[in-house]
Design goal:
There is one protein chain. The chain contains eleven helices and six strands. It has about 280 residues and is mostly helical. Among the domains are: about 80 residues, Winged helix-like DNA-binding domain superfamily/Winged helix DNA-binding domain (Arc Repressor Mutant, subunit A), CATH 1.10.10.10; about 60 residues. A three-stranded antiparallel beta sheet has the order 1-3-2. A hairpin with a 6-residue loop joins β5 and β6. α4 crosses α6. The N and C termini lie far apart (about 175 Å).
Length: about 280
């Protein structure tokens, strides 16, 4: 064999051995494909309800009695919101909240003082407890009745968080009630307030009038300026029939106390008696 040709053949083999082969890539892909792919969780599995909490899966703080009390009250509240309105024994509560290994002194304090005096817990009988909601409503009809009574008596609305705490399956009840109620965000803290929607007083208003109403702003304008503006444009305004108290009230004159007349003695001897107090020399 020609030495030059043999040299070229050796260089070609050396270069070919240093290059990666296609079979190696296929082997890598096959290994990756053999690994089990993670299963995607469904939407129902990932989006759990807030009150669906597994207390037994989480270690309980048995050394802090106030943390124990908060855990018990939270469990009673979540149980009420799920529809459990009947009372439950303290042993079952401790079992459900993973507090069976509670110290005897803390358990005694929990039964004799903490749960008895807690405004969120109602004692049915000895050892039997249940959650005490703000409002005694059990279904959507009860919520609608409460809002209707507040409307008739002029009490206003009900905080949505208080109604949610009191009413089991709150979200479902709100959805079913629909436009029988409406929600307003409170300006001070943006909390949602529920109101009864009285459809008997609803009046049809033209959309153009609504647009004009929303386009006019009266921020920073007092009543006097508004009245002058209406008079300038020949618009008659309804007079204010309320009795206005004058800002400059007349001060009451101070009553001068009259001195009582001095009582003199021996008036019948005025012609006889003489005064020697200031003797002139």
């Amino acid at each position: 064999m020609d030495p030059a040709l043999k040299k070229q053949h050796d260089v070609f083999k050396k270069k070919a051995s240093s290059m990666p082969t296609v079979e190696a890539k296929q082997t890598k892909r096959s290994v990756e494909s053999s690994k089990p792919r993670p299963t995607k969780k469904t939407k129902t599995e990932t989006s759990a309800k807030p009150h669906e909490f597994d207390y037994k899966a989480v270690a309980a703080p048995t050394d802090n009695k106030f943390a124990v009390l908060a855990r018990v009250v939270k469990y009673l509240k979540s149980r009420h919101q799920e529809g459990g309105s009947e009372a439950i024994h303290i042993k079952d509560i401790l079992d459900e909240t993973n507090l069976l290994s509670l110290a005897p002194r803390i358990e005694h304090w929990l039964i004799t003082e903490a749960l008895t005096n807690n405004p969120k817990v109602e004692v049915i009988k000895e050892g039997m407890y249940k959650f005490r909601p703000i409002y005694d409503i059990r279904d959507r009809k009860g919520l609608l009745s409460l809002l209707s009574q507040n409307y008739d008596r002029g009490y206003g609305g009900v905080l949505a968080e208080e109604a949610e705490e009191s009413l089991p399956n709150f979200a479902k009840a709100i959805k079913v009630l629909g436009d029988q109620i409406f929600t307003v965000a409170r300006p001070s803290d943006k909390k949602q307030v529920l109101f009864y929607n009285d459809k008997s007083v609803a009046l049809p208003v033209d959309e153009e009038i609504k647009k004009l109403w929303r386009s006019v702003t009266v921020e920073g304008v007092d009543e006097r300026k508004i009245e002058d503006y209406l008079q300038k444009h020949n618009i008659v305004a309804m007079p204010d029939l309320a009795v206005k108290k004058s800002s400059s009230q007349k001060r009451k004159k101070a009553v001068s106390k009259k001195l009582k007349p001095f009582k003199t003695h021996n008036e019948h001897l005025g012609d006889i008696l003489q005064d020697y107090s200031e003797k002139q020399t």
